[in-house]
What we know:
Elements: E1 4-7, H1 12-22, H2 26-34, H3 40-47, H4 63-75, E2 79-84, H5 88-104, E3 110-113, H6 126-134, E4 137-143, H7 150-158, E5 162-166, E6 180-182, H8 198-212, H9 218-221, H10 224-233, H11 240-255, H12 259-268, H13 276-282, H14 284-293, H15 297-304, H16 308-341, H17 344-347, E7 352-355, H18 364-374, E8 379-385, E9 388-394, H19 401-406, E10 414-417, E11 421-426, H20 431-445, E12 454-457, E13 459-460, H21 468-475, E14 489-496, E15 501-503, E16 507-514, E17 517-523, E18 539-550, E19 553-565
Parallel strand pairs: 1-12, 2-3, 2-4, 4-5, 5-6, 7-8, 13-14, 17-19
Antiparallel strand pairs: 8-9, 9-11, 10-11, 14-16, 14-18, 15-16, 16-17, 18-19
Helix pairs in contact: 1-2, 5-8, 5-10, 5-15, 8-10, 10-11, 10-13, 12-16, 14-16, 15-16, 16-18
Amino acid sequence: MQKKWKTISCDEERAKALQQTLNINPVLARILVQRGMHLFDSARNYFRPSLSSLHDPWLMKDMEKAVDRILSAFFNKEKILVFGDYDVDGTTAVACMYQFLLNIYDASLLDFYIPHRYREGYGVSKNGIDMASQKGITLIISLDCGIKSTDLIAYAKGLGIDFIVCDHHMPDPVLPNAVAILNPKQPGCNYPYKDLCGCGVGFKLISALSEKLQLGTGLAYDYLDLVATAIAADIVPITGENRVLAHFGVKKINENPCPGIKALLQLSGTQKALQLTNVVFVIAPRINAAGRMDDARKAVQLFIEKDLQKALAIAKLLHSDNTDRREADANITEEALAMILNDTIMATKKSTVVFQPHWHKGVVGIVASRLIERYYRPTIVLTQSGEVVAGSARSVTGFNLYEAIHACREHLIGYGGHYAAAGMTLLPEQVPLFMDKFEEVVAATISSDCLVPEIVIDSEVRFSDLRPSFYNILCQMEPFGPDNMRPVFIARNVVDSGWSKVVKDQHIKFSLQQDKIIFNGIGFNMADKFHLLEGKNAIDLVFTLDENEWNNQKHLQLKVIDIRPSTLRSGL
């Protein structure tokens, strides 16, 4: 698939001034300026994160109310329920809060609850509230959910149950009647950093309670490995406080993780130190798989388990769930691709909507993302769920998926989501009508640019720039993630050294030359572009810089993303 290449612009005067101040490669100075580091102090804080730079938790609206209500519950020996969503952010948040309260409160008065993904759905559930009422619970602390649960929290209030809501999702105009709402995005909240994940908001409540009870900071910092896992999995910006929390959380994962994370790492066979991007692929899928394939409650049980052998037993269950999830994902993706390939009309559409009643509901969102990798267009994958059809949708950059689905609401029972992802339910007989209407809406509103994937490039480099010192500074830019992605480079007028080759019939092992400097690299699933190297024709390539270790020796290599014929005249 042809891709657009877009190079980010930069204030060259600021970059030159910063380069002179820091005495670093001009390419690195340009990247820092692009990411908001214009001055020495901001660059120093970026490269040297400090826990002392975390904001005062008391700046968050309703923090005093939340702490006072919890302390009142302690004094009156009330039963407290910690409630969270079934994904990584929710389960880690529950594990942090529940463990913290266990350290300072009577365990017999504490419980936690994770709603079942399919029986109860997302967020605060009536089942959970009814269970709490039956057990005599009078305070629920909800994490990563609750901000939109106005009716259910009113229902709980009628049963004599108070709510403290810790959430990070955008609030509706009418807020729930909770005793305290902790959410930096709510109106009137002066907390300086708005992009915390749900677990991050819970961490701030733990920090405030620790300060109020004069427990020091150590107890809250014990949970940074879980906070970093939530940050990685929830795809929040890796800026400000998130970057600080992720930095120290990844450090804890590598040096002294909780037994649950240690067990997951053992089962995954991971040997090297992890970075935040590895957490996304190694730890997060195994946690998410619990809710997708079975019951997410065991993810919390894993995180709160203190005995490594018991944690390993639970981790094996999650590992098994993840194996099942991967198998279902692969099978459904293969079936869906075959459906598109065998339907000449579907292959020409501006959208993709596929439906099979037997597909597993827990992986349809993942499959939608897989289909976008092959056919870059708004995609919906539908399956049967009881008497109705349920589906997950994923968008392409620049297209408002939620608005498109909203325009098809006449065919839906319910729907929800945002710009890039959504879910919906509909009656089986409405599926063909919905497919046609969605294609009609997408075809009428999507621009041709949105149907071509875009590679965002940070800067042009020469092979002569790519030295170990350059790479070492790149590594100090970790952790990488949204708004602080691993830098992507372009090198122009590069030729094959004569040693590039196709491996395993699908990948290219590159050996490329520029300015008499040769670099090796790997390009996954790029074999169809090998012809561009033949005859030593000059190419431009887009890549990230990586380090390969072989026989205890390390050397830099290119992780090639895309290549095309050079726009410059070859002089090599």
